[in-house]
């Protein structure tokens, strides 16, 4: 099993990152480089979270071996026996051989740092650029990131000057490397505590509120009102942008040098707008630079950027509106079925997507009623209590992990108790659950936050390239300080425990933070205590109230604006529900008519075809007979026709009735 656990987790984490990226990104429409870069960033961050417990168990076993080597011992197969106490030091099932983990962490860490500080910011600017060539996009990205990179060089220079001025340090490559790691981790820890303080309170509270049907339905109505406003704004913005594109397309003719840029912009427009503009492009006039003023390539690049953003926003709001409607209809069905006497869940609308037959077989209407109306609220309450307990333990440990005598951090107590008995399964499970809960609190906040529509992770393949790359940047910057904070909570970091023991492989590649004493002994220890204040502020919704005062409508039960938006959203949902009911009634009537009269129409149609065939054959027979009968009198008939034409009197035409159009006169005649 040596190294097998590492290989299994590497493969599992890859498919996990691929699944999440498929849920939020769009593999068909987005650029391959964007997909690959985001997938690599997410994959490396998730990999650190899943592999770190294996590093902890391997480090505990290596400490045991060092203790054995320092005392008389006897070796026996897969474990080592201490001579004085006859204690057995078992090798963990997930043991990773020496030399693998340091190389693995070094590759993972520096690759993630290269992504978050150099490649992903550049790709962000490249993806949002409206340039029409690769060279133009690269130039725009370099200009936009000049200030960005200069700021980080200034921060690194400040750390470098501090170490150079301090006479206690001799600058070496390892110390410079440690300064860079400390600067990156300091920035990440500053943001980590802010996100963690929000997630520790909001995740248990959201699950507790998930058991309240009325609460969820009212919040869905509130979201519907806000989303309708955003949807209308997106449609209006798209119309304005398309009007500008139409004017540019009409002003720049087919043989203008910038016509290729206009065609590139038109390809990014929705199909209905392309067809509408294409019908007006029937003029092939030559352009004249002296008579007309044409837009520059820079202004076209700006318009191209606006088109990409407005189309993506419009498409996202349309999809989110349909998803929100389905959610609102389902919550209304749950509220209606709670008082059902038959205890069978009845849907107002049938699912538009075909359901899996296996799920449909086991998840019957009766099972669905018991789960949705009876069991699910209690399950959410129990889960909320468990998550709240974890949050309290995390907050307590964040405030007391610096204390080593006595050990007050509960996570450190759990790990040290398991270390005495060398219960590696318990150690790995405890470490995994701890770091997994911390990651959920931080990453879920990253997925929830929204920065003025410029950064917004939307599910169902509606996240744009800029937001995907930005999320990869945040993950790569938050994960290393998150893992260091976890090692500090469990006292596996020698900087916190103040013990001369073998460090974990992950800590060893970070270097000794003693190079910067004010960071190691000050910021890393006391700044995480700020999580208490942030949790209190989140519990009392201080941030929500501040945003509401600034004009950003937030869901608050005691606000008049919230009540108005709930009523507006309820009316919007009711209107959409009536509209969908009329559509389904129309489809049902057409289906019933087809089932009732479809066969009769087919039989009538077949009889009509058969009758027409008989009549046509009968007419052909009579025609042949009349042709043979009257062939001899053909000459006389022709003479009679000529005489009738000669005897005809001329008709009297009025002047007003004469039509100048020869086609209409022929048709009238």
UniProtKB/TrEMBL annotation:
Keywords: Coiled coil, Membrane, Transmembrane, Transmembrane helix. Pfam families: LMBR1. The keyword Lyase does not apply. It is a multi-pass membrane protein. InterPro entries: GPCR-associated_LMBR1, LMBR1-like_membr_prot. GO terms for cellular component: membrane. Belongs to the LIMR family. This is LMBD2 protein. PANTHER family: G-PROTEIN COUPLED RECEPTOR-ASSOCIATED PROTEIN LMBRD2. Residues 618-634 have a biased composition (Polar residues). The lineage of its organism: Eukaryota, Metazoa, Chordata, Craniata, Vertebrata.
